[in-house]
Amino acid sequence: MNIVSFFAGAGGLDLGFRQAGFDVTWANEYDKDIWETYELNHPESILDRRSITEILAEDVPDCSGIIGGPPCQSWSAAGALRGIKDQRGQLFYDFIRILEAKQPYFFLAENVSGMLIDKHQDALDNIKKMFANAGIGYNLNFKMLNASDYGVPQDRKRVFFIGFRKDLEATFEFPEPLEHKIDLREAIGDLKECAIPATEKNKTQGAACHVNNHEYMVGGFSSMYMSRNRVRSWDQQSFTIQAGGRHAPLHPQAPKMEKVGLDKQQFIPGSEHLYRRLSVRECARIQTFPDEFEFVYDNVAHGYKMIGNAVPVELARILASEVYEQVEIALRNREQRELDNINQEIREAVA
To answer: What are the chain's domains?
Structure first.
């Protein structure tokens, strides 16, 4: 099945769908810092570099599905909570505009858990209605998932909207969580010894160890950063990988930070040398990008941004596999219904 991708970023969602058997024939990404990375790692996809607001429906190839993660900053519980009133929040409407015109079998849209807070209830209800009424309409199901339940070594809660076109007479069923959780030792234990620091101005120094992008941001830690523990142990899952390198979690080689006051923590005296941010590659591993996926940047902050904004590849693959199977079943059932109707009409005509 051919699908198209909006707000593609580096393509974590796209890669997961490709691993599940979909063909991502066309993608859209407006951030110039990402273009080279996307095109290097997704040579099968045509990349449209315009804003979605400039893209007409006829510019988008016909497809079986539309996927994407409209920008989430305006919905974030840690942000300004402007939601749909923010220009970035309104990009959700452009996503629905294209969906309504193309009428694929399904869509998937991902966003932050902040969409579900009470402040945004009216906007969320409106978005749900728009999905349900887009063209002939979609049967919508949405759920907040924690990526750690689906083979991703990270606590990361995100909302997924998945809709099946109403004529399929089916509604997507989310997969159950996996029993086994991946911890940091399994995910990044082999990378412990060979990470290198970025330059003083956080420019890349190039490859290190046996993988690309194994370098970490240097520089001080803000008072906000030092307000709580930022270290997870080897046998735990990582904190959420964020888009800002300065907010990257600390490497599990360090002991957990010590509380010394209200909203104030410190590094354990004598162990300061163990506290470093996770490298770009370690963050990519935690987001379940394969090592052969290369992030292209000059400033390491752009590497962290691409990774932190991505959908974890393994979570994307698991959801995409379920979508593929459930759409195939729905299409077979629809074909059988149509055949049954034809046979019924023949029987009535003969009678």
So the answer is: 2-176 (3.40.50.150), 184-308 (3.90.120.10)
- Give the catalytic positions in this structure: 72
Euclidean distance between CA atoms 77 and 207, whole angstroms: 36
Kindly tell me the number of DSSP H helices and DSSP E strands found in the chain. 8, 11
pLDDT of residue 350: 81
63-93: pLDDT as tens digits = 999 999 887 444 444 344 343 454 444 788 8
Burial label for 176, CB within 10 Å (0-12, 13-18, 19+), is exposed
Residue 309 CB-half CA count within 13 A: 23
What is the predicted pLDDT for the residue at 74? 44
3-state SS assignment for residue 203: strand
DSSP labels, 47-100: EE-S-GGG--GGGSPP-SEEEE----GGG-TTTT--GGGSTTTTHHHHHHHHHH
pLDDT at 208: 65
Q: Which residues of the chain, if any, have pLDDT below 70?
A: 72-89, 112-113, 115, 120, 207-208
Listed in sequence order, the residues at least 6 apart from 89 whose beta carbon sits closer than 8 Å to its beta carbon are 70, 71, 74, 75, 82, 83, 123
Distance CA 309, CA 264 (A): 28
- pLDDT reported for residue 91: 81
Cα dihedral 68, 69, 71, 75 sign: positive
Report field, pTM of the whole predicted structure over 0.85: yes
| Max intra-chain CA distance, the chain | 92
Beta strands in 177-261 (DSSP E): 196-197, 215-216, 258-261
Q: Show Cβ contacts of residue 39 under 8 Å, excluding neighbours closer than 6 positions.
A: 47
**Residue 118's pLDDT is what?**
74
> Rounded CA gap, 95 and 65, in Å?
12
